[in-house]
Amino acid sequence: MGGEESSSSGVGETLLLVDAEEMFRIAIGAALGRRGYSVLLAGAAHAAMDLFHQHAAQIDAVILELALPGIPAIEVLHRMRRIRGDVKVVLTGAPDRFGSGKTAVDGKGAVFLRKPYRVNELVGQLRLLRR
After folding, report:
1. H helical segments located in the chain
2. pLDDT on residue 97
3. N or C: which end of the chain has fewer CB within 10 A?
């Protein structure tokens, strides 16, 4: 989670961070906020879908943990893409436990980031998605 820079790389961008681990979610959200991102937080699939429905037009990217309670994360991704097909997504998790994360990365606005990750790594993936 460390390795933060003080750059304002995310100024004006809104992220939806979906992670079941509350302390991790809060820490990453705060670190991204210090970098200029506006961050919406959700700890479960249903909360993520509610926030996405409410803010779909404003969300620039979703950071989606694969090990979510409730609806499987891959289904959440498919539902979000039905609402907004161009949504950018960083899928996070352990590929050895959740191999579906790698297969869901189709090269069309989705990347995979293995947990645990550093904020710098996450910001790097978000920058890649902007291209």
Report:
1. 22-34, 45-55, 73-83, 100-104, 119-130
2. 53
3. C
**Given the structure tokens 């961070």, which residue do they identify?**
17
**DSSP-based three-state secondary structure for 65:** strand
pLDDT tops 70 at residue 62: yes
Q: Provide the token pair at 92.
A: 């996070």
Q: Are residues 63 and 110 in contact, defined by beta-carbon separation less than 8 angstroms?
A: no
C-alpha pair distances (Å), 94 with each of 49, 102, 114, 115: 22, 10, 6, 6
**Res. 108 pLDDT band, cuts 50 70 90:** confident
Residue 116 contacts residue 21 (beta carbons within 8 Å): no
Domains of the chain: 14-130 (3.40.50.2300)
Rounded to 5°, angle at Cα 5 from 110 and 106: 5
d(CA 38, CA 99) in angstroms, rounded, equals 30
Q: What is the pLDDT of residues 69-81, one digit of tens each?
A: 888 888 999 999 9
In whole angstroms, give the CA distance from residue 41 to residue 39.
Answer: 6
